[in-house]
Amino acid sequence: MSRSSIPWWRSRRGPRRPARTLAATVALGTALGVLTGAPGPAVAGPAGAGPVVTRAALDPQLVAGRGARVGFLEQEAENARTDGEVIGPDRTAYTLPSEASGRRAVRLTPGRYVEFVLPAAANAITVRYSIPDAPTGGGITAPLDVSANGRPIRTMTLTSQYAWLYNQYPFSNDPRAGLLHPDWWITECSCVPAQTTPTPTVATPFRPHHFYDEQRLLLGRTYRAGDRIRLTVPTGSNAAWTVVDLLDSELVGPPRVRVVAANVLAFGADPTGRRDSAPAIERAIAVARRTHLPVYLPPGTYQVNRHIIVDDVTIEGAGSWYTIIKGREVALPEPAPDGSVHTGVGFYGRDAADGGSHDVHLSGFAVEGDVRERVDTDQVNAIGGALNDSTIDGLHLRHTKVGVWLDGPMRNVRVTNTVIVDQIADGLNLHTGVTDSVVADNVVRNTGDDGLAMWSERVGNARNTITRNTVQSPVLANGIALYGGTDNTVSHNLVADPVREGSAIQVGARFGAEPFTGHLRITGNTTARAGTYELNWRIGLGAIWFYALDRDIAADIEVTGDAYLDSTYNAIMLVSEWSVKDLYAISGVRFRGVRVDGTGTSVVSARTAGSASFADVDARNVGAVGVNNCGSFHFTPAGSEFGLTDLGGNDGGWLAPWLLPNTITCDDRPPVVPPPPPSPW
């Protein structure tokens, strides 16, 4: 969630049930040091070792048919040749391994390297990395040398200016800051500091997170499969350490040329990025609308520091590697009517209240913002407003608050083949009455909130489909989140490594959303290493999480063909918040054809009144009793208030007859037994 939202742990009256203390911070070394798990030994693979290609750090055969269809190949640094240290695995919040893809990465000190063998021809790479913050916040820059087959290519300039957040929601850039909300419950003292005598103090930096960033590089020529790309931290680097998480390699085609178009250069746009190009782009849009031509953005970097309003126009770049729209965040002299205190680069449809925009088609460019702090009232998103009968395709969105935040009511938008990374808040949010829309084949990585979300605030979303997307490492909240709505579908997505207070998939009656009605289909998704530790409840969440906070969840909901791999805690969780546990229930959810390969605790954790049925749900490597059934915690002689129905074919012994229909098996915080890595079924 993002704009106009509040932290969910404050969405009800007062603090939650008591929570045990977690470490407020872990030691930071030089320039805030290295937040790691125990480092592994140096890895020095054989010189002839071949590449290990993964998808979300998994063997690709485990996720066939799931996730975005992309043109790049992913390689994890921990599988490459290196003289650095492998850090992790670790799923504890506020550590560098926990935010890494696959929960492991490679730490390099000056003079050390990691070397990747190209699995296919490539002329471009993306490096996901972390370097320290400045001691007083604000980030640093540091070099990283790139070479191929022993010959230098270029020195990248890495930055931590868009990373390193601290403290409580909505977070701070200052590692020295005290509590932002001393009147909130915190687990670190199991108390409300402002109501506690003597007043507790917390160590600083408090809750550091959002460590990673990524950077793309065109290599200048095409390298062949088997060529070696080495990343080396120079001996004179000012960064005490550099963590490399992964490398994506890609064969990028030549720039796209559009001859018959309103070329922004003809209207005075500056492709060097030195001058403001917003007026020139707007002039090109005006002419394009009159002449029914597309707007063309040739290769270059164009400075834009405010919203460009789009309606009935096609804007095409030369490709997201070649055409970059880049801008600063600008403080407004006074707050805007919508509450924004900043503006910044973005393409926005007209407000829905003004009829919205129609027939907008955006493709083939990158949008790079300058958002370094979370201000939920700010409209500083890469794409915003209301876009009806429109398409967003082949964009690369980075360093804005939210990549795509669309405010309805509006209908029929398609967001496809887009990469959304390094956001302060959500990756994409279809907000308020968005209907008949599709989000497909997008890659979302390192968001500061939900990766992909549909939020039915005030007006329900309906008949939307989120399909074949890859969502990795949302730092806070969920990979894919559904808050109310009617007749929506989530299918064939790959979601991995949520870090804090979220799940891979959440179905939530919360944030004042309209109810779930009609049907909801969750079909053919794969999750990996999902389900985080909920700080305030002191329990582990499921890979898929149903949450009744504001109302019942009682729609026609079917979960079919999902695979939940290596779940940190439960695979499936159904819960009502403690203060409303006697008011709301989750009823009639159907699970069919699901595979569970590895859970730290149970297959199903029920902490609500209601019911669910299960057919052909197979499970193996289960860490605790198959069903942790607490119901709504009344423990009546008749059994739990949550009932389970066995419709047959449930293999693995997890749904034993003695558990049915509502045996109380409540273990509030069972021990976690880490499962073995997932393998082909």
What is the topology?
Elements lengths: L38 E4 L29 E5 L4 E2 L2 E3 L17 E4 L4 E5 L4 E9 L10 E8 L2 E9 L53 E11 L4 E5 L9 E9 L11 E2 L14 H14 L3 E3 L2 E4 L3 E3 L3 E5 L5 E4 L3 E2 L10 E2 L2 E3 L8 E2 L1 E4 L2 E3 L14 E3 L1 E2 L1 E4 L2 E3 L5 E4 L2 E2 L1 E4 L2 E3 L6 E4 L2 E2 L2 E3 L2 E3 L6 E4 L9 E3 L2 E3 L7 E4 L1 E7 L2 E3 L8 E5 L6 E8 L2 E3 L4 E2 L4 E2 L1 E7 L7 E5 L2 E5 L2 E7 L8 E8 L2 E5 L4 E4 L1 E7 L2 E5 L4 E3 L12 E5 L35
Parallel strand pairs: 13-14, 14-17, 15-18, 16-21, 17-23, 18-24, 21-25, 22-26, 23-27, 24-28, 25-29, 27-31, 28-32, 29-33, 30-34, 31-35, 32-36, 33-37, 35-38, 36-39, 37-40, 38-41, 39-42, 40-43, 41-44, 42-45, 43-48, 44-49, 45-50, 48-51, 49-52, 50-53, 51-54, 52-55, 53-56, 54-57, 55-58
Antiparallel strand pairs: 1-4, 2-12, 3-6, 4-5, 5-12, 6-11, 7-10, 7-12, 8-9, 8-11, 19-20, 46-47
What does this structure look like?
By secondary structure, the chain is mainly beta. 2% of the residues lie in helices and 37% in strands. Strands 13-14-17-23-27-31-35-38-41-44-49-52-55-58 form a 14-stranded parallel sheet. The longest helix is centred in the middle third of the chain and has 14 residues, at 278-291. It is globular and about 80 Å long. Residues 2-34 and 36-47 have low confidence and may be disordered.
Give a nutshell description of this structure:
The protein contains 1 helix and 58 strands. Strand 46 (533-534) and strand 47 (539-540) form a beta hairpin. 2% of the residues lie in helices and 37% in strands.
